[in-house]
């Protein structure tokens, strides 16, 4: 890998601020699949931000329990987390000596990771998208369609209401895509299904069931 270039990107600055030596090279290796399974830029950004959170907690004299960093990061960043839960997480960090405003201000986006890898470390992008990249692109496509459907529906209801062709008070439009597995009856939100990698009934299926081999028949 090439040495760091003279331009100071946000990722490089944060690495130096939090003394995260070696993290830049690890991100590069994970991006191209050198000794690791290839990861998407978004996954790398989440990995980086969790390390920033962990370093902040340790600098405050905390010893995070197993899973505590991941859960705290989820509370701070996940769109599905309520504002109240996020506020509670921020206040808890403040009580424990962590400045959540400064710390989250040092969180980076996947675009910042890309700039760091290609400009600071001068890493060539991997050839072709990884499986994680393709999955992320598909997830974003579905999210865009959901947002578009919400906007069109909101506009349509509002127009009909103004024309007095429909009667409704204040309203919100929610679009929730659910996937129902007809084999086992399990239902998933689309985001949950993509994150899980499939339905659990398929992921845990006995391979012999697919092969048509009776496991009790040994010959």
TrEMBL record:
Q: Which Pfam families match?
A: RdfA (PF21811)
Report the domain of life of the source organism: Archaea
Protein name in UniProt: Rod-determining factor RdfA
Query: Which organism was this protein described from?
Result: Halohasta litorea
